[in-house]
Structures are given as C-alpha cells and as structure tokens.
Amino acid sequence: MPGTLVAMPGVLPEGEPVPRDGSLPATARRAVGARGFGVYVHVPFCASRCGYCDFNTYTASELGGGASRETYADSVLAELELAARVLGDSPPPRVDTVFVGGGTPTLLPSDDLARILDGIDRVWGLAADAEVTTEANPESVGPESLKTLRAAGYTRISLGMQSAAPGVLAVLDRRHSAGRATAAALEARDAGFEHVNLDLIYGTPGETAEDFAASLAQVVDAGVDHVSAYALIVEDGTRLAARMRRGELPYPSDDVAADRYLAAEAALGEAGFSWYEVSNWARSAAARCRHNLLYWTGADWWGLGPGAHSHVGGVRWWNVKHPSAYAARLAEGASPALAREQLTADEQHMEDVMLRVRLASGLPLDVLDSAGRAGAERARDAGLLDDGAYARGLVVLTLRGRLLADAVVRDLLP
C-alpha cells in the first residue's frame, strides 16, 4: 500500500564506528552537494505522545537530566559547528533546503528556531531561493508565532492535521480539535508563508468513508498548496499496537486503505492537485517539497539532532537517540554520531530504484539490468506502468500501480 509514515526508526540500525571527530572519507567529501544539499533538524520534544507514534520523541517526563528545551538550540548549533569542521574545505556550494521536523519543532521558542536557521546560513549559506520548512502541531502555533517564523526566513510549514473527525483524532491520541489544523493553515497563509502542507492519516480503526471525505473537503477548503496522505502503520511498542493486541481496536484493513487512497486521488485531483510522489500531492511544481525530493533523488543532507540521519557522498550515519546523550557528546567536543555505513554501488542502486519509482517523474529504464527491465515489462503488461512514459524510456506508475508500488519495486529488483 502507498503511504507509510517516515521518520527516525524506534530502533537505530547497527553500523561501523564513527571517528570521535566525525571525520568523513575524502571520497565522500569530494563532491558534496553536487546533486543538491539539504539540512534536516530534528526537534525531539512533544507535549504528549500520540498513540501511533514510534518516532524519536520525548515528553518532559521522559527527558531526564542533561537535556532541556531551553538549551536545545545551543546543542544543535554545536553540532553545526562540528559539521562545518568535518566538511572543512569541501563545503556544499549552498544549502538548497532546510527541514525542521520532530517531534513538535514549534514547542521551541520561535526565536530559537530563528537562531538555528541563522546558524545554518552563517556556516554554509542559504541559497537565495532556499526552501525552509518547519513541521508544527496545529495547537502549537498561532498568528504571532507564525509571523515570527516567517520573518526569520521560514517559507513553508507542514501541519499535522491527520483527520477532521473527532473520533479518529481520539483514537490517534491527537490533542488538537477537529477544526484547528485548517484554522492554523489559514493563519500561516495570513502570516505570509508561501507554501502550506497538511498531513493526513487514513485507515485508522473506526474511520468511515464519510470521515475521510470530510477531512479531504476541509483540506481543500483551507486553500493549502500541498497535501501528504499516509496509510496508518501500526508500530510495535506503541499504545495503538497494545490496544490492538488486547482486542480493543481492529487492525487496519488493506482494502480500506486502498479505498481511502483512491478517494484522496479523486478529491485532490478534482481540486487541482497532482501527485508527484505516491503519498504527496501539490497544486504546482513550485509547491512540491524540495527537501523530500532531495531524499528521493539521492542528494546529500546533514541531519542535526538526536536520532537524525545524514547522507554525504554515499556515507550514511545516525546520531545517538536520547537528547541527554546527544548534548553530552557535543559538550565533550565529540561527534554525536552513533554509527555509519558506506553504501555499496548495489545498495545505492537498490535505494535509487525504490525511491524514484514512487515519483511521478519516474525512473529511467536504462538504469535497470536485464532482469529489472523484464520485470518492468511485466508490470507494464499488467497495467501497473504508464504506456506513454514506458515508450519514452521511463518507469511511471499508473494509479493502480501506485496501490501496488511495493510489488512493482520487488519486480524491478529481482
């Protein structure tokens, strides 16, 4: 099924040790930013934990000693200074995108979010047309904080709406009221944000077709220019998973999720949105999330914050998870990276295929080996790939193909 929630995993993978100073191989630094360069900033704080959430986030009671919201921006800026030393004389030509995610970034004071952005600009330089996004929960922003963020240079905001149905929000343990997300979207536009996204989750137990239709209608009426819609994934260790194991709630249905996806495509398409990634729709090319496109097309990015992942020149690494451990390492002048891996050519090819197949721009057929091209031909014959694009040498999913995207990828990577 299309649409999975993407964030730092609950359990970090194993990997090779990282030098104390975080240094990278010369081969990784040689062409940094050649395909674009972004900065991700993870803010791991939440006022409360949503029942479905497996992200690397912490409520106040879970933080313990050695970390706090008040000192968090200083820790991020310390990692930024380390990053500047690591890249040294091989800095990116510019920072094309910045994405501040969480958690709930807007639990930090707006002035701290402004300081972090200013630090990135001072260290590497923001491109004149840089896309700068922050995520936010609808109840964590208001007209004044939004104006402060916009004045600081943030150009895009992504609001976690999830649903317009009170019952669905209750199952997900969301704190905001049913209408708050769309109200916040309107406030963001009034504050001067060029681009506003609303996130939806579909397939929550108890959600009806009418509930989801109402959510889509509210999104359209809010006048946003970007929508993300993800199928609910039940992660082990979450409160939602525990409730399902106890039989309090049914598990999500793949058939229902497929119906919801088709409903999203129909409603958003009628409202002038076009899909550009399986789970993302935009009103125009300018409204597409350029930061996520960096991920999906194999560009470089530096991830700041606990649990954040980075990728530079085929080397991927991830930071320690807990904010206290993260702050302690930086206070000692050490890299907060826990482990890393050097991607092989085969691994890079596999990821390229997995990600670019999900894009409306498609995957060139000529990057596939003979077995992969045979798989593409079978997918086309089954109606999963667009005939016109295929004739132009591209693998582009049809609507039915989007519903079966994972199966198509498996066929292209025998």
Describe the structure in your own words.
The chain has helices spanning 26-29, 60-63, 69-87, 110-123, 143-152, 166-171, 180-190, 209-221, 239-245, 254-270, 290-296, 323-331, 345-356, 370-381, 387-391, 399-403, 405-412; strands at residues 37-43, 95-102, 126-136, 156-162, 195-202, 226-231, 274-277, 280-282, 300-304, 309-312, 315-319, 337-342, 363-364, 394-395. The protein has 2 domains: 26-296, Alpha-Beta Barrel (TIM Barrel); 344-414, no CATH class. The longest helix has 19 residues, at 69-87. With 414 residues, the chain is of the alpha/beta class. α3 packs across α12 and α8 runs parallel beside α10. It has 17 helices and 14 strands. The protein has a 9-stranded mixed β-sheet, sandwiched between helices. A 3-stranded antiparallel β-sheet has the order 10-11-12, with no helix packed on it. The model is unreliable at 1-9 (pLDDT under 50). β5 (195-202), α8 (209-221) and β6 form a beta-alpha-beta unit. It is globular.
How many DSSP H or I helices?
17
What CATH architecture label of the largest domain applies? Alpha-Beta Barrel
Provide the CATH top-level class of the largest domain. Answer: Alpha Beta
Unreliable sequence segments: 1-9
Strand order of the largest sheet: 7-8-6-5-4-3-2-1-9
Tell me the strand percentage band.
15-25%
Could you give the distance between the termini?
20 Å
Estimated radius of gyration: 21 Å
Q: How would a crystallographer describe the biggest sheet? A: 9 strands, mixed
Task: Kindly report the name of the CATH homologous superfamily of the largest domain.
Answer: Aldolase class I
Number-wise, the strands total: 14
Shape: globular
List the domain count as a whole number. Answer: 2
Mean pLDDT: 94
- Provide the helix percentage: 25-40%
CATH topology annotation of the largest domain: TIM Barrel
Structural class: alpha/beta
Keywords: 4Fe-4S, Chaperone, Cytoplasm, Heme, Iron, Iron-sulfur, Metal-binding, S-adenosyl-L-methionine
Protein name: Heme chaperone HemW
InterPro entries: Aldolase_TIM, Coproporphyrinogen-III_oxidase, Elp3/MiaA/NifB-like_rSAM, HemW-like, rSAM, rSAM_sf
Function: Probably acts as a heme chaperone, transferring heme to an unknown acceptor. Binds one molecule of heme per monomer, possibly covalently. Binds 1 [4Fe-4S] cluster. The cluster is coordinated with 3 cysteines and an exchangeable S-adenosyl-L-methionine.
